[in-house]
Design brief:
With 740 residues, the chain is an alpha+beta fold. The protein has 20 helices and 24 strands. It is elongated and about 215 Å long.
Length: 740
C-alpha cells in the first residue's frame, strides 16, 4: 500500500510538472506569437510609411495595422492644434463588428487640453499611459459611450518629433487588460517613428512648396536673373532676362555670360568672373561705375547688377540680378536738371527776399505783418526803434496785445475788414504808449497779404510816427498865432500906454488935491479905485510890450546854476511857510550859456511861483539842471542816451522845475502858452506867454510834461554856444518856439 501511495504521489507530481511545462510552453508560444505580431506590426508600419505620401493617407492603414498587431478593436488619432493649444480628433479605425459611429461623433466634437482626459494626460507628460478598465476610471471623459460599446482596456502613446509632442494615438479593447510594459515600450517607439514620418513628410511638402515658390518667384521677378556655373556658362535664365535682352531662353543656356556684355567689356569681365568664383560673396557689381548690357540686336542699355552665390554638391554657382535702369537714369537726369533750375530759382528768390527784407528793414516807417489769427509774424527794425520791442519779442504776439489802445479804437473790426473783406484801411492820429519813448502819435495803414493765387493769408500794416510832424505843425500854428498876437499886442500897448500914462498922472494929481482940500471919503475911495486899476492896466501894457519886444537884448555869459540859486532865494521863505519841500539837484559846473540873467531869473521865478500856487496844501518842488549832449556814435544817430528816439536833440543845459500838484488837464496843455489864457481867477494870462517869449529869445525851448494827478514839470532847454543843434522837444512834451 505504501508503494502504491508513493507511486501515486510521484505520478501526480510528474503530472503537475507536465502541466506546468505545457502551460509554460503555451505562454511561451503566446509570447512568441505576440512578439511576431509586434514585429509584423513594425513591418506593417514601415510599409505604410513607404506607401503613403502624407500622414493623412497613412492614418487609417496605420491605425488598422496597430489594432491588429495588439489585438485592439478600436484605434484613434488626436493631433495638436497649436493655434488653440488643444488636441483635436483626426481619424479612427475599428473592427467591422464594432458599432462606433456614435463614439466617433462624440470624439469629433471633443477637444482635450494638456492634462485633460487620457489623450491630454499623454500629451502633457510625453509618456505612454494604460488604463485597465475605462468604465471604472473617473478621469476618462467618454466613459458612458465606452460602457455602451463594451470597451474596457485603453492604451495611449504620444507621437513625437525631435522637439515636441505633435499628437496622441489611443487604442481600446473589449477585455480588461493589465499593463504590458514591453508593449508600452514598443508603442512608444512606433509613436516616435510616426512623429518622424510626419516631420519628414511636412519637410518634403515644404520643400515641394518652396521649390514651386522659388520657380514662381524666379519667373515673376522684376529683375533679370541669370545663373552661371564656374565655367561662366549660363545654366538658368528667367522670363525677365528674355525680355531685357531679346533672347529666347534656349538661346542663352550654355552660352558664356559675356554674350550679354558690350564687346569692350568682354575680355576683362572673364578675369573678373574667375576672381569672383575664387572668393564668392554677396555684393553689388561695379561699385561707382556706370554698367551697361548688350541686347541681342547689339543695342546697349544701363543696368545695375547684384551678385550672389549658392554652394551645391557640384560646386559654387553664381547668380546675377540684372535691373534695367534706363528710366531711372532718364529720371535722374531730368531731376538733376530740375534741381539745378530749382537751385537757380531759389538763389533768385533768396536775392529777391534779401532785397525785399533790406527794403523793409530800411524803411523809416514801422512794418508789421500778422497772420489770419492776428498774430505778429514780421516786425522790422523801424518798429524795434519806434516801439522799443525786438522782433523776437514781438513775433507770435496778438497785435492787440502789442497795441492795447487799438482795441478801444475798434481795431478788431478793422482787422476783420482786411482779412475777411479784402479791404485796405487807414487809421490816423492814434496815440500809443511805447516802451521807451512814452506816448507817440501814429498813422496806420493796413492791406491784405495775398499769395500769388490771391488767397489772403494775413495783413500788412505800415505805421508812421507822426509825433514830430504833429508837433511841428502845432509849433508852426502856435508861432503864427504868437507872431500875430505879438504884433497886435505891440500896437495895442503903444496905443494904450500914452492914455494910461496921462490917466495915471491925472489921478495922482487929483488924489493930492483931494487930500489937501479934504474931499468927501467916497470921492477919495473912487479916485483910489481908478488909480489901482489904471496901474493894473499899465502893468498889463508893460507885459504886452515885453511879450512883443522886437529889439534884441544884450546877451552875456550866464551860469545857469547861479541864476537858479538867485531865483530860489526870492521864494524859499514863502515855500517853507506854505509847507512845500524844496529838492535841488543841480549839475556840477555846467557849461556857460549866452543870455540875459535878469530875464532868465524872471522865467524861473515865474515857474517857481506857478509851481507853489499849484500846491496850496504843500508838496514837493523839484528843481534840477542837467547837461544834455547828442549821441557820440554814428550808429546811435537820432537816439538819446537811454536808447529813445527824439524828434529834437540839442546840446544844451536843461532846467527842470516840477511839482506834485494836480497836474494840467490834457485838453488845456496846448493852450497854456497862449496870451491871456489862464485858469486863475486873478491871473492876467501873460505869465507863461512872457516866459515863453524870453526862452525863445535865448534860442531855447520850453516844454511841459504833465499827467493829471501826478503833477507837472516844465523843461527849459538852453543851447550851449557852439553846440550841435538839431532842434525841438522830447516825447510827451509840447514845444512852442516862435519865429521872428
Amino acid at each position: 500500500m505504501k508503494d502504491e501511495a508513493n507511486t501515486k504521489a510521484h505520478l501526480e507530481r510528474e503530472l503537475r510538472e507536465m502541466r506546468q511545462r505545457i502551460a509554460d510552453l503555451e505562454a511561451s508560444e503566446n509570447e512568441r506569437k505576440r512578439a511576431e505580431r509586434r514585429v509584423q506590426t513594425q513591418f506593417a508600419v514601415t510599409h505604410i510609411f513607404a506607401e503613403s505620401a502624407t500622414l493623412r493617407d497613412a492614418t487609417s492603414p496605420l491605425l488598422q495595422a496597430i489594432c491588429e498587431g495588439i489585438e485592439s478593436e478600436l484605434g484613434e488619432l488626436w493631433r495638436v492644434d497649436a493655434s488653440s493649444d488643444v488636441l483635436r480628433w483626426d481619424g479612427s479605425w475599428h473592427v467591422p463588428s464594432l458599432e462606433a459611429r456614435e463614439f466617433e461623433r462624440i470624439s469629433r466634437e471633443t477637444t482635450f487640453s494638456p492634462g485633460s482626459g487620457l489623450p491630454g494626460l499623454v500629451w502633457a507628460s510625453g509618456h505612454p499611459a494604460w488604463i485597465s478598465d475605462v468604465t471604472t476610471d473617473a478621469s476618462f471623459h467618454r466613459m458612458s459611450i465606452a460602457t455602451r460599446m463594451g470597451l474596457h482596456g485603453a492604451l495611449a502613446f504620444p507621437i513625437r518629433n525631435e522637439r515636441d509632442v505633435t499628437g496622441v494615438m489611443v487604442f481600446f479593447t473589449r477585455d480588461i487588460r493589465e499593463p504590458d510594459h514591453d508593449l508600452l515600450k514598443d508603442m512608444a517607439d512606433i509613436g516616435n517613428r510616426v512623429g518622424l514620418f510626419t516631420e519628414r513628410k511636412r519637410a518634403e511638402e515644404a520643400l515641394r512648396k518652396s521649390e514651386a515658390t522659388g520657380r514662381a518667384l524666379l519667373e515673376s521677378a522684376a529683375e533679370g536673373i541669370v545663373i552661371v556655373n564656374p565655367d561662366g556658362r549660363i545654366v538658368l535664365a528667367n522670363v525677365r532676362t528674355e525680355e531685357l535682352f531679346g533672347y529666347q531662353r534656349d538661346e542663352l543656356l550654355g552660352q558664356t555670360l559675356e554674350v550679354l556684355l558690350p564687346e569692350r567689356f568682354q575680355n576683362s569681365h572673364a578675369d573678373h568672373r574667375a576672381v569672383y568664383f575664387a572668393e564668392p560673396r554677396v555684393r553689388p557689381m561695379g561699385i561707382g561705375l556706370d554698367l551697361a548690357a548688350r541686347r541681342k540686336d547689339g543695342t546697349e542699355f544701363p543696368v545695375e547688377i547684384s551678385l550672389s552665390f549658392i554652394k551645391t554638391e557640384d560646386g559654387v554657382i553664381a547668380m546675377g540680378f540684372i535691373t534695367d535702369i534706363t528710366e531711372r537714369k532718364q529720371a535722374e537726369e531730368a531731376l538733376a536738371r530740375e534741381v539745378q533750375e530749382v537751385a537757380r530759382l531759389g538763389e533768385e528768390a533768396q536775392v529777391r527776399e534779401a532785397f525785399i527784407r533790406d527794403v523793409v528793414e530800411s524803411i523809416r516807417d514801422g512794418i508789421v505783418v500778422v497772420d489770419r489769427e492776428g498774430r505778429i509774424t514780421a516786425w522790422n527794425r523801424a518798429m524795434e526803434q519806434l516801439y522799443g520791442m525786438t522782433a523776437i519779442e514781438a513775433r507770435g504776439l496778438p497785435i492787440l496785445e502789442a497795441f492795447p489802445k487799438l482795441k478801444a479804437q475798434g481795431f478788431a473790426k478793422v482787422l476783420a475788414r482786411i482779412l475777411e473783406e479784402n479791404e485796405e484801411v487807414a487809421l490816423g492820429g492814434f496815440e500809443h504808449e511805447t516802451r521807451f519813448r512814452g506816448r507817440v502819435t501814429m498813422d496806420l495803414k493796413g492791406s491784405p497779404l495775398r499769395t500769388p493765387t490771391g488767397e489772403v493769408i494775413g495783413a500788412v500794416f505800415a505805421l508812421e510816427d507822426v509825433t514830430e510832424r504833429i508837433q511841428l505843425e502845432r509849433i508852426a500854428r502856435q508861432s503864427e498865432k504868437m507872431a500875430a498876437v505879438g504884433t497886435l499886442a505891440a500896437g495895442i500897448a503903444h496905443e494904450i500906454n500914452n492914455p494910461i500914462g496921462i490917466i495915471t498922472s491925472r489921478v495922482e494929481l487929483m488924489l493930492m488935491e483931494a487930500r489937501e482940500k479934504g474931499l468927501l471919503p467916497e470921492v477919495m475911495k473912487d479916485l483910489q479905485v481908478v488909480e489901482k486899476h489904471a496901474g493894473r492896466v499899465a502893468k498889463i501894457t508893460q507885459g504886452l510890450l515885453s511879450f512883443s519886444r522886437q529889439a534884441p537884448w544884450k546877451m552875456t555869459t550866464v551860469d545857469v546854476n547861479q541864476v537858479v540859486e538867485e531865483a530860489l532865494l526870492l521864494v524859499e521863505k514863502q515855500l517853507a511857510k506854505e509847507g512845500i519841500v524844496l529838492k535841488k539837484d543841480l549839475a556840477p559846473d555846467p557849461p556857460k550859456i549866452q543870455g540875459s540873467p535878469n530875464h532868465l531869473e524872471q522865467v524861473i521865478v515865474n515857474l517857481l511861483t506857478n509851481a507853489r500856487e499849484a500846491m496850496p496844501r504843500g508838496g514837493v518842488l523839484r528843481v534840477s539842471t542837467t547837461v544834455h549832449r547828442p549821441p557820440l556814435t554814428d550808429d546811435r544817430k537820432g537816439e538819446d542816451r537811454s536808447g529813445r528816439r527824439s524828434s529834437v536833440i540839442e546840446s544844451g543845459v536843461q532846467i527842470r522845475i516840477g511839482d506834485t500838484g494836480p497836474g494840467i488837464p490834457a485838453e488845456i496843455v496846448p493852450r497854456i502858452f497862449d496870451p491871456f489864457f489862464t485858469t486863475k481867477e486873478q491871473g492876467s494870462g501873460l505869465g507863461l506867454s512872457i516866459t515863453y517869449g524870453i526862452v525863445r529869445e535865448h534860442g531855447g525851448t520850453i516844454t511841459v510834461d504833465s499827467r493829471p494827478g501826478e503833477g507837472s514839470s516844465f523843461i527849459i532847454q538852453l543851447p550851449i554856444p557852439g553846440g550841435a543843434k538839431t532842434g525841438g522837444a522830447t516825447h510827451g512834451e509840447r514845444a512852442h518856439p516862435r519865429r521872428r
